[in-house]
Amino acid sequence: MPLPSSGNQIALSQIRNEFSLGSGQIAMSQLRGKGNAPATGLVRIGGHFHGTASALLSTTMVTANRVANSKLGTFQRGYSNGETNVNTSGVSFGSVANVTLSNNKIIGGIYFMTNNEFHMYIKTRPFTNWTTLTLTRGSISTTIARSQAAVADQNPYERYIWQPSIVTSGGASIGTVLSTGATTTVVIA
Q1: b/e for 110-130, b at 16 or more Cβ within 10 A?
Q2: What is the spatial distance between Cα 130 and Cα 147, in angstroms, rounded to a whole number?
Q3: What are the start-end ranges of the H helices in the chain?
Q4: How many helices and strands in the chain, by DSSP H and E?
Q5: pLDDT band at residue 67, thresholds of 50, 70 and 90?
Q6: pLDDT more than 90, % of the chain
Q7: Which of 32, 103, 165, 168 satisfies CB 3.0 to 4.6 Å to 173 for a cystine?
């Protein structure tokens, strides 16, 4: 269950319980990489933990390009399982080490498009118990919020689409993180 949202008090014990940090005192080093806290640098309890939850999925993805339309020069970069309802014309590309989230939902597709939209398809719907999606490749990372996505029913998938203004604000652009052939860490929390 996500921690209290911004504007509400948050206790260290709530963070400890959400992220399974054991009992007793919490060292600040234990908070690194949890919630929205960076792996290095300053950790802000309110700024990095309000509204966050422990990860539903943490996996790696090897991205690949799929040419969607050679005449128009459009492509999709990321991963698709090739099912028709993930809008990749039945073509699979890329790979994900683990596609099953902790609540038995399945990632059907997660990819960046030429028009700078970013798509994620989760089977089955509804899938509302998450707040953020973080993509990291090496030292570059970006986090986007579920609340910033347009959500649609793409039976049996729930489709999330983030527009260009969202995917390029804060952190690295998703197009930069999802470099063809690179391994990217995907965290859904």
Answers
A1: bbbbeebbbbbbbbebebeeb
A2: 10
A3: 12-18, 28-31, 45-49, 164-167, 174-177
A4: 5, 12
A5: very high
A6: 30
A7: 168
Strands 132-137 and 140-145: antiparallel
Q: Give the start-to-end residue ranges of the domains of the chain.
A: 12-49, 57-188
First to last CA, the chain: 10
DSSP string, 106-150: EEEEEEEETTS-EEEEEESS---S--EEEEEETTEEEEEEGGGSE
Are the CB atoms for 79 and 63 separated by under 8 Å? Answer: yes
State both tokens at 61. Answer: 């993805």
What's the CA gap between 5 and 183, in Å, rounded?
32
Q: What is the pLDDT of residue 169?
A: 58
Structure tokens given for 56: 């539903």
Indicate whether 15 pLDDT > 70.
Answer: yes
Q: Copy the structure tokens of residue 183.
A: 């391994």
| Least-confidence region, from 28-32, 44-48, 140-144, 169-173 | 169-173
Within 13 Å and on the Cβ side, how many CA atoms surround 1? 3
The helix (H) or strand (E) run that includes residue 58 is: strand 57-62
